[in-house]
Write a structure and sequence with these properties.
The complex is a heterodimer of chains A (110) and B (112). Chain A has 110 residues and is mostly beta strands. Chain A has no helices and 11 strands. In chain A, strands 2, 4, 5, 9, 10 and 11 form a 6-stranded mixed sheet that branches. Chain A is globular. The termini of chain B are far apart. In chain B, strand 9 and strand 10 form a beta hairpin. Chain B is mostly beta strands. Chain B is globular. In chain B, strands 2, 4, 5, 6, 9, 10 and 11 form a 7-stranded mixed sheet that branches. The chains are: A mainly beta (110), B mainly beta (112).
Chain lengths: 110, 112
């Protein structure tokens, strides 16, 4: 079946540094990928998405990279701030369903 | 514009009790979803509704039922709660055309 996994359950970075969170997926037919941020006690919040016809997409301080050859995507956060501390999930949309990774907990050290 | 709302925020049940988790959205989503979130696991889909009047099973439907009452509301019912259903439950709506999901704040359910 479908599986989506994150490489590291936790990540600590110094404030101002760049953060990279990685994710792997199993379904080569997946054509839409999303990154979510979840703060403690809240629901997941959409950050950025990318479709399979692209390999890079940029938002405000965030960039998503997609490598379809190895079925890997990453989320890069530039100049990480304390407000970026949260759990980050990747997900892919296949059929009419979303499949979520287990999440990476990002801690920003002031 | 409240987005996606869920009630209650917290609930404690005894084994065998029943309850309904409510979800409503004012974003005109066609599709709505119920997930559960457990420690160390990603969000897992319980049921979804692609449109008003239709529902489909997700990855973990056993022990649950759903009702898409109208376009705005999608409820999740536990007929006979079990400790294994202790979890945080999230409802989400899907924005047509963008495939962006919007999540509610969650319901934290404990079954004793």
């Amino acid at each position: 079946g479908e599986s989506v996994g994150l490489h590291l359950p936790t990540l600590s970075v110094q404030e101002g540094d760049n953060s990279i969170i990685n994710c792997a997926y199993s379904n080569s037919a997946s054509d839409y990928f999303i990154w979510y941020k979840q703060e403690s006690g809240k629901g997941p919040q959409f950050i950025i998405d990318i479709r399979s016809n692209m390999d890079k997409r940029q938002g405000q301080r965030v960039t998503v990279l997609l490598n379809k050859t190895v079925k890997h995507l990453s989320l890069q956060i530039a100049a990480t701030q304390p407000g970026d501390s949260a759990v980050y999930f990747c997900a892919d949309f296949t059929g009419n369903q979303f499949y979520f990774g287990t999440g990476t907990s990002l801690t920003v050290i002031p | 514009n409240a987005g996606v709302t869920q009630t209650p925020k917290f609930q404690v049940l005894k084994t065998g009790q029943s309850m309904t988790l409510q979800c409503a959205q004012d974003m005109n989503h066609n599709s709505m979803y119920w997930y559960r979130q457990d420690p160390g696991m990603g969000l897992r889909l319980i049921y979804y509704s692609a449109s008003e009047g239709t529902t489909d099973k997700g990855e973990v439907p056993n022990g649950y039922n759903v009702s898409r009452l109208n376009k705005r509301e999608f409820s999740l019912r536990l007929e006979s709660a079990a400790p294994s259903q202790t979890s945080v439950y999230f409802c989400a709506g899907l924005s047509a055309g963008t495939d962006t999901q919007y999540f509610g704040p969650g319901t934290r359910l404990t079954v004793l």
